[in-house]
Each structure stands twice: as C-alpha cells, then as structure tokens.
Amino acid sequence: MRKIVIHKPGGYEALQIENFPDPAPKSGQVLIETVAIGVNYADCCVRWGVYQSAKKYVGWPITPGFEFSGRVLAIGDGVTRFKKGDAVFGVTRFDAYSTHVVVPEHQIFLKPEKFSFEEAAAFPAVYMTAYHALFQNIRLHPGMDILVHSAAGGVGTALLQLGRLAKCNVVGVVGSTHKIQAAKDFGATHVIDKSKQDLWREAEKAAPNGYDVVLDANGPPTLRDGYNHLKPTGRLVTYGYHTMLPKGSGSGRLNYLKALWGLITLPRFNAADMCDSNKGIFGFNISFLFDRHELLTEGMEALLKWVADGSVKAPQVTSFKFEQVGEAHRRIETGQTTGKLVLVV
Ligand SMILES: NC(=O)c1ccc[n+]([C@@H]2O[C@H](COP(=O)([O-])OP(=O)(O)OC[C@H]3O[C@@H](n4cnc5c(N)ncnc54)[C@H](OP(=O)(O)O)[C@@H]3O)[C@@H](O)[C@H]2O)c1
Q1: Which fold has domain 2-125+292-344?
Q2: Residue 97 pairs with which residues in a beta bridge?
Q3: Whether residue 154 has its Cβ less than 6 Å from ligand 1
Q4: What is the pTM of this model?
Q5: What percent of the chain has pLDDT over 90?
C-alpha cells in the first residue's frame, strides 16, 4: 500500500508518498481499499505540527487524514455489519491519507447510493463537527438566530444546512464575494460578505436582538465581538483558530510571529461576566472524541437518515489526485475554496 507520510513539521514538501506492506484486519476491524479521502483544514495543522491530538496520540512520523471512502477488502473475526466488496465510508483518527485503511467496525458506514465516493469521503468530518456543535452541545429551537463564520467552507456549509434543518435563521459570513452563492446554496438565510461589508453592522441588521449561537473558527479577530453580539442565553462556540495560521504564504510553512501574535491577542473570558450577562462559551475538538462511540453512532445515524430523506445534500467537492496532496493543501490554505476538497486514489 501507499501512504502519505510527514516525518517532521514543514511545507508541502513534507508530504511524502511511501510504500508499506498491505495491512491485515485484526478482530473487530475492517480493511478498506480507499477510493477517495477527505482533505480538512486540520490536516494542514497536522503538517505544521500544531494539532494537539496528533501530538497526543501519534507524534512523528504521521499520516494525516480523518475520513475516507472505498471498498471493503477483508474483515476481521467478529465483524458482522460488513462483507468483502461493500462500498463504505468512514472516519479514523489520522491515517486516512492512504490507499488502505484499517478501522474498527463502528467507524465505517455503508455509502449512501446517492453519494459518489468523493462526496462520501468529504462528508463525515465536517458534518459530525457541525452535528456535535449544534445538536450534542446546544438545544436548538425553531426561529433561533445563528451566525456562522467561514460559511462557504467545509464545516461552514454543514452548519448552514443543519441550522436550516432545525428551522433556525442562519446568517453566514464569507471572506470573499465569490463564496456568497455557495453559502446561499447550502441554506444561509442571509449572507454577509465581510470583504465588502462591515461585518458587525450587517450582523446587527440581520438579528437586531442578538444571536442565540455564534460559531467561530477564526479565533482572535472575531471571538470578542461574537460574544458581545449574543443575546441572553446565547452561546459562543469556538472550534478553530485559522486566522493565526498562514494564508496562501507560498511555502506552506508556519509563520511563528503570526501564531504568537494570535496567542497574545486571543481574548480571555470572565466566568462572572458570563453569569451576569447570562451568556456562555464552549469549545471542542472532535478528534478527542473518538472513544465516545455513542456520540459518533448517534450523530452518523441522524445524519444518514437526513441524507436518505433528502433533507441533507451531498457536500460540494473539488477533486485532486492522491499525488497532488501538496496542491490540495496549498489550495485550502489560500482561504479561497468553497465546499470540500478530496484526494482520489
Ligand atoms: N474543533 C473541531 O472539532 C473542528 C473540526 C473540523 C474543523 N475545525 C476547524 O474549522 C475550520 C474550518 O475547517 P474546514 O476544514 O471546513 O476548512 P474550510 O472552512 O473549508 O476552509 C477554511 C476557511 O477559513 C477561512 N480562513 C480565515 N483565515 C484563514 C487562513 N489564515 N487560512 C485559511 N483559511 C482561512 C476561509 O474562509 P472565509 O475567508 O470565508 O472566512 C477559508 O475558506 C478550521 O479552522 C478547522 O481547523 C474544527
């Protein structure tokens, strides 16, 4: 099999394709020959060496990748839900950038017929992130006002769709004009183009009483304002810090000064103020939740039901060959992409 391996933090050249013996599934595991692999912004963070769960669970060398689709090649003892040849997709804590993946049975699912292999590989990471944020941490009610930053990206489009499914007003923020249509296509009731419009003035117009939920993966530039724009009982969800990282730098290398400035300017929140203003803030990273089988199963079952009845549509994908992994990373780091990127084996 071939795997994309990173031996030490670096630019795109750090992504090396290497040969390994084919793996065999152990008891309870399934071996999958991959067809497509989802690319997430977090994979770039793994390459830079700033992704905490990669440090905690793997170290160096590491093969990035959280999601894949493909066909079952072999099953281990005790596997009951799958057989050789099944078209499946699933999640793994790293190691998906590979022609072969071995995972426990509960981490894969039958591929919906209406999804291509590329669409299926692009689905679980961002939709489980959105599901975990909106349904496993918050109790949504129809008519709630939700603000979604980076709304045309992978997680952003998933948040828009799920927010609309819960009958909420979903205001999407995009950083470039060409992303407006993608945000509308995935359900935004209103789109703010912060490259042309005053973000917070427009956000106030769209929800004059404030927001019930603000979802922020930007980090320092918007967290404080997001908190200030919550209505009482509102929640600020912090789940990423991409503004602290390079944007289309060319080399793909980390800018330590920019990251340090981000850390210095990261807002601190006061617990007593949260109590007095009746607002909350929480953060999460789903890569620390792989042992919580019940959360994954509940989320994926709900999502696949919505896929089956047409309430949730396939992600919008842009495909790259497996060998073009460096180009896929470069593209997502430009901050200009919409929807999801996938590698095709
Ligand atoms: N905590 C978790 O469990 C979890 C899980 C999945 C993803 N995430 C986080 O969620 C965010 C979105 O992930 P994704 O994979 O779906 O990516 P994505 O949204 O497809 O792409 C990232 C988007 O972030 C914005 N951005 C702002 N500053 C940027 C910079 N310096 N470099 C690149 N992009 C920048 C851009 O949109 P605009 O300019 O339109 O804002 C860009 O399109 C990332 O921060 C990721 O780490 C967290």
Answers
A1: Quinone Oxidoreductase; Chain A, domain 1 (3.90.180)
A2: none
A3: yes
A4: 0.97
A5: 98
